[in-house]
Amino acid sequence: MLTRNCLSLLLWVLFDGGLLTPLQSQPQQTLATESRENVFIMPGRQSPAQRVKRGWVWNQFFVLEEYMGSEPQYVGKLHSDLDKGVGSVKYTLSGDGAGTVFTIDETTGDIHAIRSLDREEKPFYTLRAQAVDIHTRKPLEPESEFIIKVQDINDNEPKFLDGPYVASVPEMSPVGAYVLQVKATDADDPTYGNSARVVYSILQGQPYFSIDPKTGIIRTALPNMDREVKEQYQVLIQAKDMGGQLGGLAGTTTVNITLTDVNDNPPRFPKSIFHLKVPESSLVGSAIGRIRAVDPDFGKNAEIEYNIVPGDGGNLFDIVTDEDTQEGVIKLKKPLDFETKKAYTFKVEASNLHLDHRFHSVGPFKDTATVKISVLDVDEPPVFSKPLYTMEVYEDTPVGTIIGAVTAQDLDVGSSAVRYFIDWKNDGDSYFTIDGTEGTIATNELLDRESTPQYNFSIIASKISNPSLASKVNVLINVLDVNEFPPEISVPYETAVCENAKPGQVIQIISAADRDLSPAGQQFSFRLSPEAAIKPNFTVRDYRNNTAGIETRRNGYSRRQQEFYFLPVVIEDSSYPVQSSTNTMTIRVCRCDSDGTILSCNVEAIFLPVGLSTGALIAILLCIVILLAIVVLYVALRRQKKKDTLMTSKEDIRDNVIHYDDEGGGEEDTQAFDIGALRNPKVIEDNKMRRDIKPDTLCLPRQRPPVEDNTDIRDFIHQRLQENDGDPTAPPYDSLATYAYEGNGSVAESLSSIDSGTTEADQDYDYLTDWGPRFKILADMFGEEESYNSDKVT
């Protein structure tokens, strides 16, 4: 620091000593800095005829960082040439940190730092200084800008910003193999001294690894480092500033280095012979044992493949690798039998799947071991002679017929007798029975191939000495067909023939189907029935391929004469016994164009003239409906007019006399005889038929003498009575027709309540009690009413 200040002072003396000659102009002030005291001088000469040229401007101060003194740190001094030392000049300071970090003596111009500074926080401060006349408050000098730079000291140690580090390197790597590069950062000023110059070194991890002091690159230092011996290494790295000299600051970090695996070790069996014991009842495909070869490598380098070396018994076993444990799992390929062979010996080879060519010189990466398997005897169930039994039986076979047999044996030492029975699962198993000792199968019911063509059930064979030991076999019985159904037309055909058809024209191809199970090569034959072969309108041509064609025999057909033709076709099969059936085909006559395309087959089309459109048909139907509506309306009006004629007179008062000869509708029966005809003879219907009887034969109406207008009703009734007495169609004697005359001349007088001089209260109903027990209820009813009326009067 002292050297630097002396250099600054020397430069100021050289410049201020006259090396720079001022110009002839108005006096100007020059800024300079004193070397020892950091004086910021503003020289000026008061000569109105000269302009003084500004000399060397030294506008930079230095201040040490991290100052720990008890007094404020002196920075420098501001001075103006116009300051005569009489206290007439005032110095001011502004800019970064003015008043808070730096202060100035207004009279002397001394600048002090009032607090400790950190270069890493702020490396420099830019301030402005000015000299002001204390009396006039006017600037004596233009405002000048200068810099106070914080001078660095070595107060920051190097830091590893990315630490701790994790790295890996393959095992067996040569010396100098690259591992990782580390980097430390120093916050000190790299342009000033050696404070930021960092050197790297290893504190822990030798002699396995080394580090470049300048670059921080870590490399292997020992050859053939084996992962199987040691996998993890922890290396402690140091970074020291000041170029590693004494007194420099240092920082450390940790690097965790892992040796990755390579396939440098072959698999090895821990022993040369493996002994396994396997029961003879082991299932095919089941695991019967495990062997393992040891490989100290890791991951895919430790993956092992096992193979059975061809030799004795190797074809009965298989070996696969368990992906999780890398064990060899031995499985059974074929069933074992203690009675046939009791022991097997074979060799197993273990080898790596992923080889590394760099280590081929080490030797073959495989190993071999011997496996000896001893078969253990097990009490086994009976064994059937076949895995599946297939039998055939005709559908008409009598009940109890033996159709086949199954056989099972106990192969163990000291064999036991076997018992057979059917495994009942559904009703279909009841069609057959089995002999429990012999194993013969017989029918138990009549079979029908058309309902069930095949039966599939299971038979169980168990030891008599140990019934829990049982085996099962499937039996498949095919029911053979007996020709019992005749062939028929396969589908219902809708056959049509054109009116303009020519002889020999094929109008339909037909085929047949048989519900029997037709054997291969069975043929159907087609022909006309004998009754249809006489003067046929159509014929059948057999094509000898189970199809036939219907051909026309006439030159044209007419729908007006016959719309449908019924053609009986006889179909026979070729099985034994021969079965045949007669199938009637319906052939419809249709109207076609010249090309044979059907235009219409509707029935109504026969009676319509050619060329009549649908719109014309609709118009004709509408006209018919309108005419019918007019006729119905006219008839209704005529009946209404005739009824009104009978009721023209207001004085014509009459009642309906309703004749009852059975239980009917009473007074609501409007079909009763209208007595109005008795009062108005003109409206008597001459030919009105009797309503109360139904004549057996049609009789001609009798000619009655005309009735005069002034004929009395009594004479009219008498005349009608005579006519009825002589009428052969009159009702029988047990039917009574009553004709009475109601009015003033009648013995019963008027039956109407109109103009009646008496009331119901004046009537005496005591005579009802004399009529017998049948009228007792009626007499009681009117008697109670009469007593009730008398009570009201009293």
TrEMBL record:
Residues 80-160, 161-269, 270-384, 385-489, 489-607 form the Cadherin domain. PROSITE patterns: CADHERIN_1, CADHERIN_2. It is a single-pass type I membrane protein. Keywords: Calcium, Cell adhesion, Cell membrane, Cleavage on pair of basic residues, Glycoprotein, Membrane, Metal-binding, Phosphoprotein, Repeat, Signal, Transmembrane, Transmembrane helix. It is found in: Cell membrane. CDD domains: Cadherin_repeat. Residues 1-25 form the signal peptide. Pfam families: CADH_Y-type_LIR, Cadherin. One of its GO terms (biological process) is cell-cell adhesion mediated by cadherin. The chain crosses the membrane at residues 606-637. One of its GO terms (cellular component) is adherens junction. GO terms for molecular function: beta-catenin binding; cadherin binding; calcium ion binding. Cadherins are calcium-dependent cell adhesion proteins. They preferentially interact with themselves in a homophilic manner in connecting cells; cadherins may thus contribute to the sorting of heterogeneous cell types. This is Cadherin-12. The lineage of its organism: Eukaryota, Metazoa, Chordata, Craniata, Vertebrata.
